[in-house]
Amino acid sequence: NHLNANLQLGIDRSLDQRYQSAEKSFSFTRALQLDIKGFSSYNTRLTGQWDLDKDSRYNNEINLYSLIANIQRNFSPQSNLQVELKTGLEKGGKQDGTEPYKLGSVSFIPSYRSVWMQKYRVTASLGFTYNWLSGSSYFAFLPQKRAGLVPNANLSAVYRLNSYSSLSLDYRFWDYPKDDARHELKLEFKAEL
Description:
Distance between the termini: 44 Å
Order of helices and strands: EEEEEEEEEE
Oligomer: single chain
Shape: globular
Strand content: over 45%
Helix content: under 10%
Structural class: mainly beta
């Protein structure tokens, strides 16, 4: 059993001059992370984070506060179940103070990962996020900033045929409010020669 604490500070500035007008973005992240490992076969990560983002493309400024609990249960060295619980509050608007909004969210995302006989690897997750919006809906053209329920799912499987080739399947599903549900399926064969 052990406990780790981690404090993170990050600053990111970028300037994109590929188009007619230069686009600037600025991001400042502060996070405190607490890892509790090996307590009764569970690993737990608790994270509190505050992000400040400014972007000239949308002329916006966003403060995002989030709390995340990630709990993992190891059944064996080959399989585990993980549950992520997340809540967030986003306060934003245009940089000149117009179009203010608040976007709150809660998420529940269980996932399962397993490896069999070093040939098969399967990862599956099913997530539900509920957003509520108050104030301006100016930024609701971005699907992740719309009020309502956002379900999503992901299934990934890899089968190792032999020491130099493998077959993989990747399926993704998501459904944003006021949008059609989207499905994405990818099948891939890899060979190393």
